[in-house]
Backbone:
């Protein structure tokens, strides 16, 4: 009798296993659905301003202030036609070309100068390295506004105001401590055995830097390029200080011109320019965003 009861209990447990497994799968599916709903809701909250701005770019001027809804009641492309016609006698493409020159120049300068400075701090032993590195990090605590007046006086005395030089020269001289620090930390995570093996073969610092270090820190270079491009593209104060001619000004200053050209701001044209100004940044980010993840993942590489 006891053996029969034991067998029955075993059969009951075996029959209950699929039920418990089914309940576990159901709970997992419910949890997954809940997380998806939360993620979609958060994405909608984050993306709503962009969607509103895109929809508002098709609103006629008369609807601003009266139509609080997302979609325009009488959609029109007049805002984009106004924008494409240019402003202050300068075509729209000129503003974008100026912004592209500044952004691409910033990326090139930061990638070249910051990577070299970072390699020197991370791999080259020289007297005072720790002190210089500390001073460089200290410059990150110094507000840019403190340097505005002396920098402007310096460039004015050199006759470089109303040129791109004041906005780009610092990028080629490794004055951006944030990017130098980022690459230093990345290089320090690389195995030193690679450098030592190259030196055994007779390679010096230039060969090690260009043949070994640069290929391995590509994720850090791409990450720095993304931030440098976005920061330069969105920079307003720098061009406002140093660029006086409208045909040399970038897109952020074009937005100001659209607001100041008349006594009443052209909100539709301003929003249309804002939409167009976002496109290069979005395209640049979407192309290189995977390197951000790769850069974080490879931070775990150790010797």
Residues:
């Amino acid at each position: 009798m006891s053996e029969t009861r034991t067998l029955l209990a075993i059969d009951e447990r075996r029959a209950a296993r699929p039920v418990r497994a089914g309940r576990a799968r159901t709970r997992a599916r419910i949890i997954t659905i809940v997380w998806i709903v939360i993620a979609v809701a958060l994405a909608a909250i984050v993306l709503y301003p962009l969607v509103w701005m895109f929809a508002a770019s098709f609103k006629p001027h008369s609807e601003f202030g009266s139509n609080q809804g997302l979609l325009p009641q009488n959609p029109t492309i007049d805002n984009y036609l106004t924008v494409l016609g240019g402003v202050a006698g300068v075509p729209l493409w000129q503003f974008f070309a100026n912004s592209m020159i500044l952004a691409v120049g910033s990326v090139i300068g930061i990638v070249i100068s910051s990577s070299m400075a970072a390699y020197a701090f991370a791999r080259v032993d020289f007297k005072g390295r720790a002190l210089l590195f500390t001073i460089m990090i200290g410059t990150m605590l110094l507000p840019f506004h403190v340097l505005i007046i002396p920098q402007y006086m310096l460039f004015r005395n050199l006759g470089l105001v109303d040129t791109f030089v004041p906005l780009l020269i610092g990028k080629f001289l490794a004055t951006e401590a944030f990017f130098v620090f980022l690459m230093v930390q990345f290089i320090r995570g690389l195995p030193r055995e690679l450098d030592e093996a190259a030196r055994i073969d007779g390679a010096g610092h230039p060969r090690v830097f260009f043949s070994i270090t640069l290929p391995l820190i590509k994720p850090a270079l791409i990450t720095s390029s993304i931030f440098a491009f976005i920061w330069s593209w969105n920079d307003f104060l720098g061009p406002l200080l140093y660029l006086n001619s409208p045909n040399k000004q970038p897109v952020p200053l074009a937005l100001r011109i659209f607001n100041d050209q008349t006594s009443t701001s052209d909100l539709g044209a301003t929003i249309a320019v804002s939409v167009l100004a976002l496109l290069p940044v979005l395209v640049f980010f979407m192309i290189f965003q995977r390197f951000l993840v790769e850069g974080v993942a490879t931070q775990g590489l150790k010797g």
About this structure: The first helix runs from residue 2 to 56. The chain is about 70% helix and 0% strand. The chain has a mean pLDDT of 81. The radius of gyration is 29 Å.
